[in-house]
Amino acid sequence: MLFPFKMADKTMPISVPSEKPLKVIKWKVKQGALVSHGQILFLYSDSSGNNNEIKKFKAVRAGTISSIKVKEGDIAEPGGCIAELEECKHPTVMKEMCAECGADLRKDESIKHDVASVPMVHSVPELKVSEELAQKLGREDADRLLKDKKLVLLVDLDQTLVHTTNDNVPPNLKDVLHFFLRGPGNTGRWCHTRLRPRTKVFLESASKNYELHVCTFGARQYAHAVAELLDPEKKYFSHRILSRDECFDARTKAANLKALFPCGDNMVCIIDDREDVWRHASNLIHVRPYSFFQSTGDINAPPSLAEEKALSTNSINGKQKPSAEMPTLDAEPEKKDNEILKDGKLNTEQTVEDSNGKIVIKQLSENHTENSVENNEIEKDGNKIVANCQEPQWVENADGQIEVEDPDDYLIYLEDILNRIHRHFYDLYEKMGKKQIPDLKSVIPEVKSKVLAGTSLVFSGLVPTHQRLETSRAYLVARSLGADITQDLTENTTHLVAVRSGTAKVNASRRLAEGKPKNFFVVTPEWLWTCAERWERVDERLYPLQRGGQLAATAGALQQPPACACSCACASKTYSFWTIHGYPQPVTFILK
């Protein structure tokens, strides 16, 4: 046996390949050289002089020549060690082929468990590195980020920065981008994407303090297409795009964190409209979902979540919305007579199916659609409720484009939140003498807990009677913001958060307020939800509890972005968003 080898010992001696002494004529490699399988190491001949034939000695394994024991012209005895070969550890592997030595790892099942297994490149999961190399690269990345005073920001796409639909929309809808995802042959699908207001400004600002990574459940082709819309010059995301095709788990994004950040995720911040796909990680900023197209939720929601999300976002009037679907590459739909445009104008006819299964044509006005809530009236629990909100109107400008007012301003607050987190992280890093790296999983909750620090809250009508206060959503949100919560009013109570007037707690609070009018507030739940959304203590005067059964705040109340004008139901859209997250309705409702 030429190369006696043990798996526990990575250095193998290269011995004389005959029973007779041999003379080393010429070395073809140098000490420290990386050699591949079958490469010529040296030339030799029979030292007896009976045979002058020059023979070649080839490596039977890949690795590095760690030492040369016999020099050129010297004689090597049988069984003697000529050189030592340190076996290749296959630190970088691409599709089961070692990128260092070229070895085909599929041929040697015995070493598969000991080779590179960590995929560190977002969009190339086949490229893997060893745990040792991954740790080395991870430390280098951390040092680079600290030197540049940056952190890492994992950015979700759908309903965080963009909203995409596969439904037909007017082609002249302003600020809606259209692209076609082509599949094998001539198949494919049109996608229509609306960027959240201020997205470009947000990315420019965030990139100064964060290294941006896309992390989405959209397919690879979709993820790169949207990234191209957001970052055509590739100055924000570069190649750092993780799509559904690279995710280890079809239901969670958290499984990829160890591979992307082998030294730990203590410098990683996440923004996403869904907490569950990150297993409610403490370094996650839960983003208010962005909805522009009324009939579409998150088209890339994971299979296990799509049905749940579709059921949660049903409109109030009882109409079932289409369930969210993964972006597949179906055949491009043929144009119908009643689709998008008709005779060069917006088509106001819609083909629908009635209760008997018959196809009928419905005539819609240009500023009122089938899903609109007429007269802003909603039926809830048997009561007729008036929603004090207006539907956005279609306005066609001089260029023939349809403009839809989109008042969503959430990214302004998200930008401020990220700046505060970055500032607090590096303040701690300086206090630690730059010898320890703070952990964002502690930093982010600490920043958030300052929002309502020093306040003491009591709830009225927010927690069902059968539920323990400590397990309620309102309690958990308020505690995460740093507030104290008590079951009943005390001398230290600063806020009563009430759903309706006339309750025992509300009546008692009015007597309590007489003693400290400047330090006690009776507010609606929207005040708490707005504080949670913006990570700031908002002015209580915008959310007073009104007498006479009025449930919500005045004009300063939190407003949700309207749905797309081509399928709008403003009141139901606002209701659906808050229903998803288990919150009360934030729109102004007046009981009749």
Q: Mean of residue pLDDT?
A: 74
Instruction: Supply Rg.
Output: 33 Å
Distance between the termini: 94 Å
Strands side by side in the biggest sheet: 17-16-12-18-19
**Overall 3D geometry?**
elongated
Number of strands: 32
Helical proportion, percent range: 10-25%
- Unreliable stretches covering 5 or more consecutive residues: 1-9, 311-393, 549-592
The biggest sheet amounts to: 5 strands, parallel
Number of helices: 11
Describe this structure in words.
The longest helix is centred in the last third of the chain and has 22 residues, at 410-431. With 592 residues, the protein is α+β, with helices and mostly antiparallel strands. The protein contains eleven helices and 32 strands. The strands form ten sheets. The chain has a five-stranded parallel beta sheet. Strands 1-8-6-3 form a four-stranded antiparallel beta sheet, with no helix packed on it. A four-stranded antiparallel beta sheet has the order 5-4-2-7, with no helix packed on it. The N and C termini lie far apart (94 Å). Strand 22 and strand 23 (359-363) form a beta hairpin. 21% of the residues lie in helices and 22% in strands.
